[in-house]
Design goal:
The protein is α/β, with parallel strands linked by helices and 284 residues long. It is built from 9 helices and 9 strands. The protein has a domain at 34-55 and 63-185 and 194-227 and 277-283: 3-Layer(aba) Sandwich (Rossmann fold), CATH 3.40.50.
Length: 284
């Protein structure tokens, strides 16, 4: 496992983006269904960080996020891990502290650039990052003991699930954290639109079925719901600008919707919404 690509060689990472028919051509950006959306979301997040603005929000009780992180860190000890949809690499590097090796993949150039910057500052040598899509992982079969996806694309399609299965060794496991269909339900009602799910059944039901069809066994699914509070309208705007919660969110055009959320759901604790997370574990 290399220590990752130097920033001066970042363009070379793009050679991992091969066309689906295997002809070796670099994929145009537009072939990634949501790539432009994610580049814009990461750009918004970078802008917030550069401005020193920090979102003020908090949850009550266990929301599934912290529990997932605990399970991943416990499972990663001494193992070869792939983080599918690693984003800017913060959690990937946390995994590396106890794992044997870690590979982080993502299709966002902006996110991977930030991940490489983090890697250089950490001087960690058991991590590499690759620009790649989840349905065509740039690794040989049976390369990893553990595949994880933290609100990432590993379970988006039959192809991406199949790729996760392929790169896992026998008895390897996959840990997934997915956003449930009831997440931010009151926001979706106000906006008249919400996160787009490519499935017709509950997220938990669809995940279990799709994993089983691709050969995974001993599948366990848990759901977590919690209340989430935001301090101000500005904090809600920050989340909407750097997360794909509301499709085609526009700060100016949707100003009335955000104000309505504040009017309807402000409590003594803050502006209230909900979180819904689905945690999945399965074995190869």
């Amino acid at each position: 496992m290399s220590s990752g690509f130097p920033l001066t060689e970042f363009a070379q990472i793009r050679t991992n983006l091969r066309s689906a028919d295997g002809d070796g051509d670099i994929l145009p950006k537009r072939e990634f269904e949501d790539q432009e959306i994610w580049e814009n979301l990461y750009a918004a997040e970078e802008g917030q960080l550069a401005a020193g603005v920090i979102e003020r929000s908090w949850t009550e009780t266990e929301d599934g996020e912290r529990e997932f992180d605990r399970r991943v860190l416990a499972s990663a000890k001494g193992r070869d891990v792939i983080d599918i949809g690693c984003g800017t690499g913060e959690f990937t590097l946390e995994i590396a502290a106890s794992a044997s090796t870690v590979a982080g993949i993502d299709f966002s150039e902006r996110a991977l650039k930030k991940a490489l910057e983090r890697l250089q500052s950490k001087k960690t040598f058991n991590v590499e990052f690759n620009l790649s899509r989840a349905d065509k992982l740039p690794y040989p079969s049976e390369s990893f003991d553990l595949a994880i996806s933290r609100r990432g694309p590993a379970a988006d399609t039959t192809e991406s699930i199949g790729e996760s299965y392929r790169v896992l060794r026998k008895n390897g496991e996959i840990l997934l954290q997915e956003i449930g269909e009831r997440d931010k339900q009151n926001w979706a009602q106000v906006f008249g639109r919400g996160q787009i799910y490519p499935w017709t059944e509950k997220v938990s039901t669809e995940l279990e079925k799709k994993l089983a069809r691709e050969g995974f066994r001993n599948i366990s699914v848990e759901e977590f719901e919690a209340n989430e509070y935001f301090a101000t309208i500005q904090d809600i705007l920050m989340r909407l600008e750097n997360s794909p919660i509301i499709p085609d969110f526009d700060k100016e055009l949707d100003e009335g919707h955000v104000q309505e959320i504040a009017n309807l759901f402000t409590t003594p604790k803050g502006i209230k919404t909900n979180t819904h997370r689905v945690l999945v574990r399965a074995e190869k």
